[in-house]
Amino acid sequence: MNKVNFIYEVDNKQLTTCKIVNNLYTMINCRIVIVFDEYESMKILDKFLWSFDDISFIPHAIFSENLDEFMPIILMNDQSKLINKNIYKNYNTIINLTENFYVHFLNFKTIFEIVSKEESDKSKARKRWKEYKQRSYCEINSYKNNYILNS
């Protein structure tokens, strides 16, 4: 069964994503894929992951064809590579920072959906929620942003 976690009412998607990644990597050693619609958004988070916390180190890389398969966290903006490279076989968690639902996300054990306070983002998240809900094998949870920030 897939576990889908919607984190809503987020002020800053990059900061929230960094906190989630930090918790998942340091506490339970998750292998994580973070997906984006745009290359620029991916580059911003790449820089933010290096600098958001002075005392933590989050090893990560932007996906490339010759990426070390042992890299614990990868960032990518081409969803087709998830299927073509069978990335889900080596990673158990995906963080969706795109605006869409992709059925191949269901190859991951855990899925995070980050939703800002903006009405357009909420509307798109509701559509994704419905997509997951239609699949009876998904356990869907929702957490208000401060749940993550305080954990």
UniProtKB/TrEMBL annotation:
Coiled coil regions, renumbered to chain: none
GO molecular function, one term: DNA-directed DNA polymerase activity
BP term (GO), one: DNA replication
Record-linked Gene3D superfamilies: DNA polymerase III subunit chi
InterPro entries in the cross-refs: DNA_pol3_chi, PolIII_chi_sf
Name of this protein: DNA polymerase III subunit chi
